[in-house]
Design a protein that fits this description.
2 copies of one chain form a homodimer. With 216 residues, the first copy, chain A, is mostly helical. Chain A has 2 domains: 50 residues, Arc Repressor Mutant, subunit A, CATH 1.10.10; 151 residues, Tetracycline Repressor, domain 2. Chain A is built from 10 helices and no strands. In chain A, helix 5 packs parallel to helix 8 and helix 5 packs antiparallel against helix 10. The radius of gyration of chain A is 20 Å and the shape is globular. At the A-B interface, helix 6, helix 7, helix 8, helix 9 and helix 10 of A face helix 6, helix 7, helix 8, helix 9 and helix 10 of B. The structure holds a DNA duplex (18 and 18 nucleotides).
DNA sequence: GTCTATAGCAGGATAGAC
DNA sequence: GTCTATCCTGCTATAGAC
């Protein structure tokens, strides 16, 4: 650590690597491309991270996980304003945290592309994310939504409800360009807000299933 | 075409290429790997398809699109039994066609992994699928579901409803292993049926949104 | 149509100067 | 920590025999 530039090479590599991995996928990106974007030497990746695969894992450990934690915090903060949050609050907070939360549009796109990449072709990073982020989030989501579900909903139904909500959150992020293209250019402004609103309403009706007409 | 083996080399290459592309992604698969699996010569790919990229496109044109057509047919056949199918019938048919339809589990996994790969990193094939499969399906789905939605639902809401259903169909396929792992081994048998049932109920309540308590 | 052989190049990784 | 130079493997693609 003799050299103090604007930002450390190691950090620049992590940034550029994440952006490129998210954009093109692991195998489509070469070390040369990464170091080129990070304006550093080809050998730097192997010096700082050992090899390409480990750089990829460090992207998850040092960039992805902390960002996921920020999203989780944003979600938790929104719902912890009341001791017993309503289902509406819970789903709305979740949708906002993921679709319109603390991340920039760019960061959010990266974040979700990376994880969907792991969903399609899991590597070592997938296990990390499932255990450290996905399961805890699913658990607290189920707990928070319990109050909004019919009392006779069993554990499996509760889990599937939570999965369904996550499905929409993920998909609406991933297909944002497609959705825009289908909706046409007519409705550009505030689309995100309307997506969140739709997601919340759809989900709330969904989890209230078998319970229509009565409210918790 | 002098050589008549069990199956033509060209077809074997398409089969193996599709399986490998779905499993590992385009860039992670080499021509050597494909021709090895297809038990043919390395040069066969370039002879039959020109280059690797075009082989990938042919996989879509000659394998993916026809299979998508079979799924669509299965869906249409299920709902065309009555002149004006109920929303329940429509969603149920859709969910069954995609999650438990004419495709084998293996084929379905391939089919959806390929398309999610395109969702993440679109290539030329994406446009093909959007125009030839996705838009028509979305269109007919919206038309069929119109009757189940509140009359004051505008076009955008109708589209988002359809997207939400597709989101769950896609996601439940993609995350099938994850869902199983979260649900635990206790509930192996007939999981698919229960997934379909959940999806249908969740969606039907969802699209009836804004309509709770009163029925249109 | 299928095969061998090989051209030609891009990729990951490392050794060693600075 | 950073850089140059280089090794070597594995890749796509093609030319040409059969």
């Amino acid at each position: 650590m003799k050299n103090h530039r604007n930002e450390h090479t190691r950090e620049r590599i992590l940034d550029e690597a994440e952006a490129l991995f998210a954009l093109k996928g692991y195998h489509a990106v070469s070390i040369r491309e990464i170091t080129g974007a990070a304006r550093c030497n080809l050998a730097a990746v192997n010096y700082h991270f050992g090899n390409k695969q480990n750089l990829y894992l460090e992207v998850y450990r040092q960039r992805w996980l902390p960002r996921a934690e920020r999203v989780r915090q944003s979600f938790q903060n929104s719902i912890k304003t009341t001791p017993v949050p309503s289902a509406d609050t819970v789903v709305h907070s979740l949708a906002r945290a993921f679709l319109d939360g603390p991340l920039s549009n760019e960061a959010r796109r990266r974040h979700l592309r990376l994880i969907v990449g792991e969903l399609c072709q899991p590597t070592e990073a997938f296990e990390l994310v499932v255990e450290r982020v996905f399961r805890p989030l699913l658990g607290s989501l189920i707990a928070d939504l319990r109050t909004a579900m019919p009392v006779d909903v069993d554990e499996e139904q509760a889990i599937l409800n939570a999965f369904s909500i996550m499905a929409m959150v993920l998909y609406f992020n991933l297909s944002h360009p497609l959705i825009k293209s289908v909706l046409g250019t007519s409705s550009d402004n505030d689309l995100k807000t309307r997506l969140v609103d739709h997601l919340v309403e759809f989900s709330l009706n969904g989890i209230a299933g078998g319970n229509r007409g009565s409210d918790k």
